[in-house]
Design brief:
InterPro entries: Ribosomal_uL4, Ribosomal_uL4-like, Ribosomal_uL4_dom_sf
Largest sheet: 6 strands, mixed
GO biological process, one term: translation
Strand content: 5-15%
GO cellular component, one term: ribosome
Radius of gyration: 27 Å
Number of domains: 2
GO molecular function, one term: rRNA binding
Keywords: Ribonucleoprotein, Ribosomal protein, RNA-binding, rRNA-binding
């Protein structure tokens, strides 16, 4: 699949980038996409929720009233869950929500997500660029030139670039990642994917292992 390579001003450079059909042109596997996104969302959960149960409450264990004859329910101590300040019944406990997923399924999911974006013509290929120093306004100008100013965009770099990353960090709708950090969730969450030329080889190599 041939795609025009643009510069940061949004103009055609006259060059073509060859996007592998094995990565950008497969029949999407929606179940693999579902499993990968599900795993990603599960890994975002800290699982540190905790409520004190009866045995963890600090308080007197004295029996507060006699067992029979009061006409009310029996109560062993003030730590009983039926009293204010007592323990919680079956309260949340710390839990590990992480899930395992086969590497081949994860690769298939990312290729499926990229193929979906490619089919929707939501992938741009831009020549590698850099900034002399981190400036948000420079990155905003790039977004304007590419027609992405008011859209969720994901820039995929071939290698870590601190200037580009810091320039985009304050922008809520834009994100910058390297090809090795790319995930199915990030791909689907963006309206447009901007692939830098330097990211193509590494991306296709990683997904075709």
């Amino acid at each position: 699949m041939k795609v025009a390579v643009l510069d940061i001003k949004g103009k055609d450079t006259g060059r073509k980038a060859d996007l592998s059909d094995a990565v950008f042109g497969i029949e999407p596997n929606k179940h693999a996409v579902y499993l990968d996104v599900k795993q990603y969302m599960a890994h975002q959960r800290q699982g540190t929720h905790k409520a004190k149960e009866r045995g963890e409450i600090v308080g007197s264990t004295r029996k507060i009233k006699k067992q029979k004859g009061t006409g009310t329910a029996r109560a062993g101590s003030i730590k009983s869950p039926i009293f204010r300040g007592g323990g919680r019944i079956f309260g949340p406990r710390p839990k590990d929500y992480s899930q395992k997923l086969n590497k081949n399924v994860k690769r298939l999911a990312r290729k499926s997500a990229l193929s979906m974006k490619s089919k929707d013509k939501a992938i741009l290929v831009v020549e590698d660029f850099d900034f002399e120093m981190p400036k948000t306004k420079d990155f905003i100008q790039v977004l304007k030139s590419l027609g992405l100013e008011n859209k969720k965009s994901l820039f995929v770099l071939g290698h870590s670039n601190n200037s580009v990353y810091l320039s985009s960090r304050n922008l809520k709708g834009s994100e910058v990642l390297t090809s090795s950090e790319l995930s199915t969730y990030k791909i689907l969450n963006a309206n447009n994917i901007v692939l830098l030329e330097g990211a193509l080889e590494g991306l296709e190599t990683n997904l075709n292992k």
